[in-house]
Each structure stands twice: as structure tokens, then as C-alpha cells.
Amino acid sequence: MPELDPTEHTVDELEDELQEIDDQATLRDAYEAEQSGEDRSSAKEAIRRRLDEVAEGEPQPEADGSGDEDEDESDENDSSNQSETADIMSVKESVRNVATELIGHELDGVTELRRVDDGWEGVVEVIERPSVPDTQDILGAYEIQLDEGGTVTGYRRVDRYRRADTDREEHV
């Protein structure tokens, strides 16, 4: 049994629990437990995000007193540039946070995110009508427009289909 059993938590609770875990092996175990358990896409995405955060944080050396303050200054400049223009991960998070409330259906996933002239465009899939089995779910693909800072400026539905429709790409 993994140290953190994601099936014992809602996705929101799981996200809170994940913030306290800095061990990649524990996070991988939690991902595998979720995959073999409830297999919720939003829970797996939360675990993957935390795993990426932990992986990005590991190779960075701590301050060793060697007097390399120039690196610190460039890091500060990088972070100020990033605050002016949203990076792809913060835009993705923004889309995930507003999609369900904006569209009014449960988010199934962010399927596309790209930079455009005046900001960002993302495509999300939402479950418009859940069914049993889930291969018969009716999904809607929505395009969401965001400005340079990652604030949503508009959205529209671009497609609607059954989850099991594997040949829908040919018709687009």
C-alpha cells in the first residue's frame, strides 16, 4: 500500500496532500495506485503536476556561499519577466481552474494549449453527459481564449462527440 492512497481522497483533498510530499517515489506510487484504482484523470493530472514540480526542484543547488550572486540576480530578472507574460504551466492551471465553472460541465482534460498573437488558446474536453459505461459519455471540446497574462477572455464549443468515437479526427 502506498504512503498516500489517492483513492481515499477527493481530488481537492488529494491536491492539498500532494503539496506536502517531496519524494518522487512516493508520488509515483500514488500515481500507480490511482491508475489501478479509480483512475480519475484529474487526480492523475494533479499527481503528475506535483511530480513535475518535485523533479524541477531537485537539480537546483542550494546556496553554498561561493559568492555567485550574479546567478541570483538573473533568476530575479527571469521571474519578473515570467510575471509579465504567463508561462504555459500557469496558463494551463488557469484554464483548469476556470473551465468547469465557465462551461458548466465536469472537466475531462486540457487537450491543447498554444500561444497566439494576442495571448493563448486552449482546448478542453468536458463531460457534457456522463454515461455507463463511460465510453458512451458525450464530450464537448471547447476552445478557450486567454490574454497575455492568462486571463480568460472568451470561449466557444468547437466539437461534441461520444468518448468512444475513434474516427472523429477523420471528419474534422
TrEMBL record:
Biased composition annotated in UniProt, kind: Acidic residues: 54-78
Basic and acidic residues compositional bias, start-end: 28-53
Pfam families reported in the protein's UniProt record: GvpO
Organism domain of life: Archaea
GO biological process terms held by the UniProt record: gas vesicle organization
Ranges where the record places region Disordered: 28-92
Identification of the protein by name: Gas vesicle synthesis family protein
Organism: Haloprofundus marisrubri
